[in-house]
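Annotated sample (chain length 295).
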Amino acid sequence: MASTFELGGDLPVGRIGYGTMRLAAAPEPGFDAGAGHIWRAPRDRDAAIAVLRRAAELGITLFDTADSYALGENEALVAEALHPYRDDVVIATKVGVARPSPTEWVPIGHPAYLRQQAELSLRRLRVDRIDLLQLHRVDPAVPLADQIGALRQLVEEGKVRHIGLSEVSVGQLREAAEITPIAAVQNLYNLGARQHEDVVDYAAAQGIAFIPFFPVAGGSHAAADSPLAEVAAEIGATPAQTALAWLLHRSPVILPIPGTTSIEHLAENTAAAQVRLSAEQFDRLSAVGAAAVPA
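Output written by the structure step:
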């Protein structure tokens, strides 16, 4: 099992990256965790910076953020912690979602807006070129060709190296690839959320990185008597490490980006790259996960 992947064919990254979304502050008062999170910078900025720096020390090279996380403050935090960036560090960010309130995530795909947000990301990240710029969500009110065209213009201007998409179908990936090369797709995917199996397979066939967000399944999949826990006990790993290992075994193009605010959990997640599953263990976990997907 390869330990690295060449993003866009020219940027080698470790197979396990770090997703920065969870570094944002706790939910706003009066909002639940799902609705009011990711709105402000972390209250303990020093602790967040320590996690980011420790991630780099552990060998993580792919860091994923977005302009909508804490209204851009998440990007600024990445720069504060890691700039000047090591030569092997790859920064991925996203544009295309507005945050008018703590509970709203509004896709905006107008080309001028996307280009403006990319300019702001360049400033906050303190770079002249973004390694991977992803369309955070497709705006159904704007032709996809116009949205991808705006990102292609940024590549032509030397402001973006590679383009990615998030939460898209195979059809949308194909349509985008007719306009410009697509280096990555970031969709919800984990052992218990398998609705994008066809996207994983398409990405593998095309050499496109598949970056699953929320890569560790929760709920019954992580219960003490679950098959995940059983396999974890068999190989001497934690359930979270085993879930990440399943993703790494699922396809050589999968690059999980687990997020955490804990240095202890960060080390645990990073060590998942060394976990090996037998073919039988992989199949056992795959069968359990597939059974949870509605027909």
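Annotation: The first helix runs from residue 45 to 57.
Annotation: The CA atoms of residues 24 and 38 lie 5 Å apart.
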